[in-house]
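Hi R.,

Here's the chain you asked about this morning:
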Amino acid sequence: MIRVLIVDDQALIRAGFRALLAAEDDIEVIADASDGLQGVELALTHRPDVVLLDVQMPVLDGIEATRRIASDPRLADVHVVILTNYGFDEYVFNALRAGASGFLVKDTEPADLLAAVRVAARGDALLSPAITRKLISEFVARTPHQGPVIGLDELTKREREVMALVGKGLTNDEIATRMVISPTTAKTHVSRAMTKLQARDRAQLVVFAYESGLVQPNTPS
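And the predicted structure, written out as tokens:
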């Protein structure tokens, strides 16, 4: 059973999402909250698999709430999906940097919401690497450099190469083919890079690849 926490300051949004999710046999809505601080507290209490988290809320916004959830070792298995009215923007970009697994626009189709919850619960990045790369590339191209990525110096040359390919949107199988290694070895390199950089998933690793300069915006794969 996938356990979901809904955090949004709009009661109608919370009620609509709850009704949709609760109708599924494999999903349970364990709680909901109207602000980010309460959302963090409920995440600690219930340890949900997925948190659907509004990016703009009172008391504590979605970015800081994501950062607190992502940085708490007790919530290592909790996956945050950001909810937004506007699509990919600075708020969503910063939420991905803070540890969110992906984002959804609030008017998304019901089937897409359900699929997103299931993908996030598995621990996968909500967006495909290629889509994430395209969005982040476009945003990074028009924003100032964020500074050094903590932990980058700990990566081996091989791990840096793999991280750059992840940033370009390649899957583990594609990385394996490009580097002439096995898919298992590619997966190991990706996992080690994520561990050293404390990236929660591939979406955040893509962000770090751009911020570190390993991948330049709008460069081809």
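The CA atoms of residues 6 and 52 lie 5 Å apart.

Let me know if you need anything else.
M.
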